[in-house]
Amino acid sequence: MDPLDQLPPPPGPSPLPSPLPSPLPLPLEGLTVVAVEQAVAAPFATRQLADLGARVIKVERIDGGDFARGYDTAAGGLASHFVWCNRGKESLALDLKDPRGLDVVRRLIAEADVFVQNLAQGAAARLGLDAATLCAAHPRLVAVDISGYGASGPYADKRAYDMLVQCEAGLVSVTGTPEQPVKAGIPAADIAAAMYAFSGVLAALVRRGTTGRGGPVEVSMLDALAEWMGHPLHHAMHGGTPPARTGLAHAVIAPYDAYFTADGGRVLLSVQNDREWRRLAEQVVGRPELGTDPAYATNAARVANRERTDALVAKALVALGADEALARLEGAGIACARLRDLPELAEHPQLAARERWREVGTPVGPLRALLPPITLPGGEEARMGDVPALGEHTEAVLRAVGMTDEEIAALRRDGVAA
């Protein structure tokens, strides 16, 4: 037999490759959120919902809108807080003190999935827009009340701005130097409340999926920030003494601080256990005997001798440039970081390498913005919509609720809509 007769037949045409699966839609696609909101806490919460695909209709005052629009002009002429917290929303400018303006909001809520408000305490209830009232009328609605201190108790009616709540929650008492307490450089109380409102909405939507009922969600800025104070709070309650204010240093770990380098930079390092201290002593400080010296061998000893410990580390690092210091620390397996300012953050190589920057449209042109931290591989990218001008979508929303040209014109003429 011819050996060629024993060969397998030539293969047929290659099968066509399977089509790539379509990306999953954004998880909140198809949901509608109505928000009577201002400042940071509620707007930051609803921006998360917009990024994940929800339609967010932002109801603003006709006389200037959300007062955060006027905080500054740093973002190309727009307020930086507003640009940060309000992309991807539709702006509807109404006077809710007029029954016709309030009626529009009620019509929108009747068709919405989520309602969020952070008006002054009692204002939403007077308008019939508090979560309990709305959920009684619309059982599938998830309605969120964000307040400073909660709906009851002696502080219920106090004005609650971020820095005030930082003080009440004890954050300022543990932030700063031994001589001077300082507030956090970001609106920590607002952000804490926003993120619990966001997660509360998601939890309530999951519950609605199994029970058919939405329900109220209540979040207070004080409750949220008090939860974030968990470590120093438990340290004080159960250990008897609050952690000391130590600037950039860690209150109960040493060395854990920022140190100057030869080129004027600052490098922060963190030694988490005694093995790491021995590596630091040998490979960076150049004093291996310090690894077993009783004055430094344990974290308790290093904290008790913090000044001497810091002096040893500082002497070693100030002889190195920042890049060399970081390389030496990385080589020794010591956690470290460069102390960056905001322009350096905007050009951070890790954010650039992971392509975290996008542009969003605004009334003054495109501005850079970060993708939200939640990434959903295999799904559509977060919807980073435009930052709206005040009342930009008023006419479209009014038409969508069934108003005629004459009715819209009357609202505008009477100062009820803008």
Largest sheet features: 6 strands, parallel
- Low-confidence runs (pLDDT<50, min 5 residues)? none
What's the oligomerization state? single chain
Question: What is the radius of gyration?
Answer: 28 Å
Strand coverage percent: 5-15%
List the strand order in the largest sheet: 3-2-1-4-5-6
Mean pLDDT: 94
| End-to-end separation | 92 Å
Shape: elongated
Question: How many β-strand runs?
Answer: 11
Order of H and E elements: EHEHEHEHHEHHEHHEEHHHHEHHEEHH
Question: Could you name the key traits of this structure?
Answer:
418 residues; alpha/beta; 6-stranded parallel β-sheet; 3-stranded antiparallel β-sheet; 11 strands; 13% strand
Structure description:
The protein is α/β, with parallel strands linked by helices and 418 residues long. Helices cover 38% and strands 13% of the residues. The chain has a six-stranded parallel sheet with strand order 3-2-1-4-5-6, sandwiched between helices. A three-stranded antiparallel sheet has the order 7-8-9, covered by helices on one side. The protein is elongated and about 85 Å long. The model has no long low-confidence stretch (mean pLDDT 94).
